[in-house]
Amino acid sequence: MTTFEWIIVLLLGAALLAALARKVGAPYPTFLALGGTLLAFVPESPRWTLDPHLALTLFVAPVLVDAAYDTSLRDLRANWRPVAGLVIAAVGTTVLAVAFTARWLVPEMPWPVAIALGAIVAPPDAAAATAVMRQVKLPHKLLKILEGESLLNDASALLVYRLAIMAMLAGHLGFASFAPVFLLTVFGSLAAGVGCAYALRPLTAGLRDVPIALIVQFALTFGVWIAAEAIGLSGILTLVTYAMTVARRSGPQMPAHMRVPIFAVWETVVFVLNAFAFVLIGMQLRPIWERLEAGGARTDALVTAAVVLVVTIAARFVWVLSYHALKRRRAASAGRTPPTFGSGIVLSWAGMRGIVTLAAAFAIPETLPGGAPFPFRDLILLCAFAVVLGTLVLQGLTMAPLIRFMGLTDDDPVGREIRLGRTHAYRALLDAIKDDDTLAAKLLRKEYGAVVDLNTSQAPDAPVDEVPGGPLRRRAIAVARQRAFELRRDDVIGDDAYRVLVQELDWAELSAGGGRQD
Q1: How far apart, in whole angstroms, are the C-alpha atoms of residue 372 and residue 385?
Q2: What Cα–Cα distance (Å) separates residue 279 from each residue in 121, 124, 135?
Q3: How far apart are alpha carbons 467 and 451 in whole angstroms?
């Protein structure tokens, strides 16, 4: 098959795997990892390659922007201690544990390479964990801790990764060189991210066309990352700061007709990037497998990858349970309600790795400055994929049963805040039209008054994302849409009129709760 045909087949396969994952209640990266593994052994499968320098930019930048845009600064501030512990201490524990293990198993591996391997497998991809946890209603605080970790641990792990690769390429990196690089990278990146958000805001403020706005958003996403890397800053830290600043300042200005399709496109792009990350790594496995067989080192490599997987999982358990035990002791001595043991177990088990680990492994240079091959690059790629596949399968498929077994439940604080916010927003709306005596205003006051009454009820019997008469409206809109189709079919109305009518009905369905996923 040609490249284009393979792309179509792989995208369709990824979509079917994701649909199957949703049906069984598993995170879709788990099934993508399995598909990538199988692809490595498909006869005549393509052997595509990607410039290692492009890997992190292509795969990680859009994913970070998407995650940063949805991150709550309030929740980060409220949970900064556990998030900081996971971002700094848990990542550091994993890096050191894996580096020492790699050196023990492969004594000839240089320390910078061992540390780079530890940094590659250190950051969990909490997107996979939260996909499961939203299905089983994990307590809101744990969910926010994991989301905060997923956004920031990439920065801490890849900062260590970057320094380790620099040390390997330069031959050495002493403390005198390390400290200025670290301080400049961290604080310079934070300042640059905020500065870019304010400087580039005029480019997006006046856009009202969806395709143009999307092109500008993607161009700025990659542009901020590339510019930060070009001047020696951290692309991750800069981009995360940039995206969070933009998200906090641009929300009210974006009209609904832009917000809905733009969010849908970003969600699709993140899915496609995940799919191709697993596909590309799967394609690297076959030549790695063949080279290991030729060198007679396949068994040793598999053992190393398996041990790295076990150490990666165990290191997170060591930190999380130690921190949890300390919190329980302090809470007991202070007379507060201590965190449950089950929450510590679930937080420890939610260490699935994903696209960042794959992209970082792929981004390792193929050669050193002198032209010699980068040492143990094949082994690092194999270990990275083993950790991603192992954690996604072992933890991804057992996360939901574990949460249920531990009896963790959510008291729905977000639902309460939605009802509170909806009550205030619609009361403001009613105040805005209270002096209007037209028929339209009277109808709106009745409709939105019902919304306020529903959300101020002490025991609402409707889901938080339901509106008054939502199911009835959706059934009526479905009938109206069918009638519009019949009118076009019978040539009573033309295609142009049909599209306008259906668009109106689509927006009415969305406003009636038609966007909910059952």
Answers
A1: 24
A2: 18, 20, 27
A3: 7
